[in-house]
C-alpha cells in the first residue's frame, strides 16, 4: 500500500510537471498567434485611413468597390454637425469620420481572411463596449484570454480573443512512460533494499551466532569442569595410592591402579574432543536425536527457573517418536531458547505452563511449542526473529535470532503466532531425512 502511494505521488508530481510545461508551451504558441493576428488587423485597419485621405468626389464608385469591396459608402465632405471618429451602423459595419470625409466599413468583409484562419475559440472586435465583430462562443469560461487595443488614431478598436488548451495534443505517451518508469524504479529500489536488508541480517546473524557461541563457552566450560573433575580426582587418587604401594615394596598391587589411571586419562581426552567439536561451528556431526529426552534434559537444565516461576512443563512428544538426524547441541539450544522465553513471558502469570508436541506429516517433523502467557504483540510478531529485538529490559535480543539460524541450518523453518486461547505459539518444521545445511 505504501509503495503504491509513493508511486502515485511521484507519478502525479512528475506528470503534473510535464502537463504544466506542455500547457505553457501551448500558451506561448497561442500568444504568438495572437500577436500575429493583432499585427495583421492593425495593418488592415491602417489602410482605411490612407484610403479616406485619397478618395474624392470624382472617384469612380465601381473601381473603389472592385478594389476595396469592404467599403460600402463614402463621403468626402465632413458631417455637420461633426460625428465621433467611429460611428457604429448596423451589425459589423461602422463609419470612420474625419475632417476629410467618412467611410462606411464592412468589418467582416475587411477581415474575412483572418476570420476564417484564426484558431481561437472566441474572437471579437469592439469599440467602447459595442461589439462590431464577434465569432465563436462567448469565451467567459475559457482558460486563456488575450486583450489589446488597436493602435490607430481613427479606429482604436479593442481586440479580445480566448482559447482553451488542446488536451488531445498533451504528451500522453510520455505520461504513461513516466508512470512505468517510476513503477520500475520503485520495484528496483525495493529489491535493492530487500537484498541489502537480507544481507545485513545474514551478516548480523553470523556475527551474533559467534557471539552466542562465545557466551555459551562459559556454560559449556563449567559443564566440562564438572565432567573432568571426576576422572582427574580418580587419577589423583589412583596415582597417590600407587606411589604408596611402590614405596612399600608392593609394586605388583600398583599395576591395576596405573591401568585405571590410563583409562581415566583416555576418558578426559574423549571429553576434550567432544568439547572441541561442540565449539567448532562448521563441523558438527549430525546424529540421531531423541526429541523427547532432549526436551526433558533442557527442562532439567532450567529447573531453577521453572521452580522459581512455578511453571508446569508438559512434554507431549511420544517416547516412541522416531529419532531426528540433527546436531544434539543445536536442538538443545533451540529448545533452551524457546523454553526460557516462555518462562520469562509468564513471570506475572498465576498458572504458567509450557507444552511441546510433535507430529510427523509426510516427510516432515512438526514441533509446536505453546505457552499460557499474554502472547506476542503485533510488533513482536513481525520482528521476533530480528537481532536486538527484545521485550525484556535486560534482554539482548539475540536468542530468537540464533534460534532461527539454528533451525535454518537444519533445513527447517520456524513461525511465530498467537494461539486462539492466548499465549505464544512457535511452530518448527524439519525434514525427517536431511543433511546439514
Automatic annotation (TrEMBL):
Reactions mediated catalytically: ATP + protein L-histidine = ADP + protein N-phospho-L-histidine
SMART domains, A to Z: HATPase_c (SM00387), HisKA (SM00388)
Gene Ontology MF terms: ATP binding; phosphorelay sensor kinase activity
Domain Histidine kinase: residue ranges: 223-434
Protein's name according to its UniProt entry: histidine kinase
Entry's EC annotation: 2.7.13.3
First-level EC class: transferase
Keyword tags: ATP-binding, Kinase, Membrane, Nucleotide-binding, Phosphoprotein, Transferase, Transmembrane, Transmembrane helix, Two-component regulatory system
Residues that span the membrane, as ranges: 170-189
Top-level taxonomy: Bacteria, Pseudomonadati, Pseudomonadota, Gammaproteobacteria, Enterobacterales
Amino acid at each position: 500500500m505504501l509503495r503504491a502511494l509513493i508511486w502515485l505521488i511521484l507519478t502525479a508530481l512528475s506528470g503534473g510537471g510535464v502537463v504544466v510545461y506542455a500547457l505553457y508551451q501551448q500558451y506561448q504558441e497561442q500568444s504568438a498567434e495572437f500577436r500575429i493576428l493583432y499585427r495583421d488587423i492593425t495593418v488592415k485597419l491602417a489602410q482605411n485611413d490612407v484610403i479616406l485621405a485619397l478618395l474624392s468626389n470624382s472617384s469612380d464608385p465601381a473601381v473603389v468597390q472592385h478594389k476595396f469591396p469592404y467599403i460600402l459608402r463614402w463621403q468626402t465632405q465632413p458631417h455637420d454637425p461633426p460625428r465621433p471618429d467611429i460611428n457604429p451602423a448596423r451589425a459589423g459595419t461602422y463609419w470612420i469620420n474625419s475632417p476629410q470625409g467618412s467611410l462606411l466599413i464592412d468589418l467582416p468583409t475587411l477581415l474575412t481572411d483572418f476570420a476564417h484562419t484564426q484558431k481561437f475559440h472566441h474572437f471579437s472586435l469592439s469599440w467602447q463596449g459595442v461589439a462590431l465583430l464577434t465569432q465563436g462562443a462567448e469565451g467567459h469560461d475559457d482558460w486563456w484570454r488575450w486583450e489589446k487595443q488597436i493602435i490607430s488614431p481613427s479606429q482604436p478598436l479593442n481586440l479580445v480573443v480566448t482559447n482553451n488548451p488542446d488536451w488531445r495534443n498533451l504528451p500522453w505517451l510520455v505520461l504513461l512512460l513516466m508512470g512505468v518508469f517510476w513503477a520500475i524504479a520503485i520495484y528496483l529500489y525495493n529489491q535493492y533494499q530487500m537484498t541489502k536488508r537480507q544481507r545485513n541480517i545474514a551478516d548480523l546473524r553470523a556475527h551474533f551466532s559467534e557471539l552466542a557461541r562465545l557466551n555459551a563457552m562459559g556454560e559449556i566450560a563449567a559443564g566440562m569442569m564438572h565432567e573432568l573433575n571426576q576422572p582427574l580426582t580418580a587419577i589423583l587418587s589412583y596415582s597417590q595410592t600407587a606411589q604408596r604401594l611402590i614405596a612399600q615394596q608392593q609394586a605388583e598391587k600398583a599395576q591395576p591402579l596405573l591401568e585405571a589411571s590410563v583409562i581415566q586419562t583416555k576418558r578426559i581426552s574423549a571429553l576434550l574432543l567432544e568439547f572441541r567439536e561442540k565449539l567448532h561451528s562448521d563441523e558438527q556431526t549430525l546424529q540421531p536425536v531423541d526429541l523427547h529426552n532432549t526436551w526433558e534434559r533442557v527442562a532439567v537444565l532450567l529447573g531453577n527457573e521453572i521452580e522459581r516461576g512455578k511453571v508446569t512443563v508438559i512434554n507431549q512428544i511420544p517416547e516412541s517418536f522416531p529419532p531426528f538426524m540433527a546436531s544434539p547441541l543445536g536442538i538443545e539450544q533451540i529448545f533452551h531458547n524457546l523454553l526460557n522465553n516462555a518462562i520469562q513471558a509468564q513471570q506475572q502469570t498465576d498458572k504458567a505452563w509450557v507444552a511441546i508436541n510433535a507430529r510427523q506429516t509426510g516427510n516432515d517433523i512438526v514441533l509446536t511449542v505453546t505457552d499460557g502467557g499474554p502472547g506476542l504483540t503485533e510488533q513482536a510478531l513481525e520482528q521476533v526473529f530480528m537481532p536486538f529485538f527484545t521485550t525484556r529490559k535486560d534482554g539482548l535480543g539475540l536468542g530468537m535470532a540464533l534460534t532461527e539460524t539454528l533451525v535454518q541450518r537444519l533445513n527447517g523453518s520456524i513461525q511465530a503466532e498467537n494461539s486462539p486461547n492466548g499465549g505464544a505459539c512457535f511452530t518448527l518444521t524439519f525434514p525427517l531425512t536431511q543433511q546439514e545445511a
